[in-house]
Design brief:
By secondary structure, the protein is of the alpha/beta class. It has 6 helices and 7 strands.
């Protein structure tokens, strides 16, 4: 299972690395690196932040956000199995979600993600290419837990 994380906060990234170590995790902390990475590799699960306060793009002066990244994914039809939007910016999260299939996207305030990571890890482990099942009325791919 390949997981992509767009997050600019180094403490949060350490949290992801510690708690998702059984998965193949790639972390990018800015828009430009994220675009370069998803153009080279395919990922199953995405964790996306909206506010990328620490990022300065090589591509121009305009501040790029997770929404810009979501629009890029939408426009380029980047494949995914599921997307978690973990920003603490509710309006930004809704804009980002509008770029994706709403049934395959979950908005999670980061504070809740911190306290419920084990629950979400079980969610992640359900995805697999070979088997399909219904989960909360959504057809998803399943991996035996």
């Amino acid at each position: 299972m390949k997981i992509f994380i767009l997050e600019d906060n180094s403490l949060r990234n350490k949290f992801f690395q510690k708690n998702l170590k059984e998965f193949d995790v790639t972390i990018c902390n800015n828009y430009d690196d994220a675009i370069e990475t998803i153009n080279k590799e395919k990922f199953d699960i995405f964790f996306l932040d909206h506010d990328l306060d620490e990022s300065i793009e090589k591509s121009g002066n305009r501040y790029k956000t997770g929404y810009d990244f979501a629009k890029y994914m939408e426009e380029n039809k980047t494949p995914y199995k599921f997307i978690y939007i973990h920003t603490m910016n509710p309006s930004g999260a809704r804009y980002m979600q509008s770029c994706f299939d709403e049934d395959l996207t979950k908005i999670i305030p980061f504070t809740i993600l911190f306290t419920n990571i084990e629950y979400h890890k079980k969610d992640i482990k359900r995805f697999k290419l070979e088997e399909v099942f219904s989960y909360e009325g959504i057809t998803l791919e399943k991996e035996a837990l």
